[in-house]
Every structure is written in C-alpha cells, then in structure tokens.
Amino acid sequence: MREVNIGAASEFTDPGRKLIGFDNFEVAVFKVGGEFFAYLNHCPHMGGPACQGKMIAKVEEVIAEDRTSKGMMFSKSKLHVVCPWHGFEFDIRTGIHPGNSKARLRKIKLAVTDGDVVITVPDAREHVPVMQEADITASP
Ligand code: FES
C-alpha cells in the first residue's frame, strides 16, 4: 500500500469529486458536507465506472402520521452517485446501495493531513479485489 497526496482539501467543490487514475484502477474522492469519502471506481454490479455518474439527492417517500404516503421528495441530507451503466445508486457517505446492502463500493482509506487529502491505495502490482455480481445477488 502507498499513500498518495491528491491535493488541498480547499480545492474541492462541495458537493464535488475528483477521479484519480492509477495503472490498473481508478479512485473517486467525494466531498459532501465538508467530509471526504473515497472509493474504488468499480461498480459491484458489472464493473462500470459507478463513481463517474450523476450525483443526485436520494428520493424518499414522505409518510404522514396516519401512515399514508404523501408522495416522494428529494432528501435534504442524503446524496447518491448513480452508476452510468445500469443505474445502481450508492450513498456517497457509505458507498452502500440503498436497497441491497451487499452492493457496496469498495472504500479507500483517506485522511486530511495538514490541509491535504491523502488516500492509501494498493501498490501497482497488487491485485485490487472487487465484489462480483454473484456476491450481491446471493442470499445471506
Ligand atoms: S455496472 Fe453499475 S449498475 Fe451495472
């Protein structure tokens, strides 16, 4: 593993992201609400570039006190990224698909040190394990 300084934290827009390419993989670093999150840019569904998709607010159903639906609205606190290949969504703060907790982006270690964002990534020769489709469809 190696640490890579990807620049000043202050240079990120919020919400925003940066994609960083390495020899055989990419890492996406997101900034949301002043916090940073990093994931391998590899969708657990079929390997698409999940972190390059649209960043949109989670759609939530509003439930009244009498337990009836009052319709759908965009969340004010949860932001998702949508894989451009088939539309799987992932919560940017957790990397987890909202409807299937087995479908999750692989987290990359991140720290903000002296104002810079530093990620810890595999060495070039290391195999980068990713979750395969069978892993997210199998029953627990
Ligand atoms: S590869 Fe991402 S949704 Fe299919």
Quickly describe the structure.
The protein is mainly beta. It has one helix at 133-137, and strands at residues 2-8, 16-21, 26-32, 35-40, 55-63, 69-82, 89-91, 96-97, 100-104, 109-113, 116-121.
Task: Write up what this structure looks like.
The protein has 140 residues and is mainly beta. It has one domain (2-137): 3-layer Sandwich (Rieske Iron-sulfur Protein), CATH 2.102.10.10. The protein has 1 helix and 11 strands. It has one helix at 133-137; strands at residues 2-8, 16-21, 26-32, 35-40, 55-63, 69-82, 89-91, 96-97, 100-104, 109-113, 116-121. Strands 1-11-10 form a 3-stranded antiparallel β-sheet, with no helix packed on it. A hairpin with a 2-residue loop joins β10 and β11. It is globular. 22% of the residues are buried. Residues 43, 45-48, 50, 83, 85-88 line the site of FE2/S2 (inorganic) cluster.
Task: Give the secondary structure arrangement, pairings included.
Layout: E1 2-8, E2 16-21, E3 26-32, E4 35-40, E5 55-63, E6 69-82, E7 89-91, E8 96-97, E9 100-104, E10 109-113, E11 116-121, H1 133-137
Antiparallel strand pairs: 1-11, 2-3, 3-4, 5-6, 6-7, 8-9, 10-11
The structure holds FE2/S2 (inorganic) cluster.
What is the count of distinct domains?
1
> What share of the residues lie within helices?
under 10%
What would the CATH topology be? Rieske Iron-sulfur Protein
Mean pLDDT equals: 91
CATH architecture annotation: 3-layer Sandwich
- Globally, the shape reads globular
Distinct small molecules: FE2/S2 (inorganic) cluster
The secondary structure category is mainly beta
Quaternary state reads: single chain
Distance between the termini: 31 Å
Strand order of the largest sheet: 1-11-10
- Tally of DSSP helical segments: 1
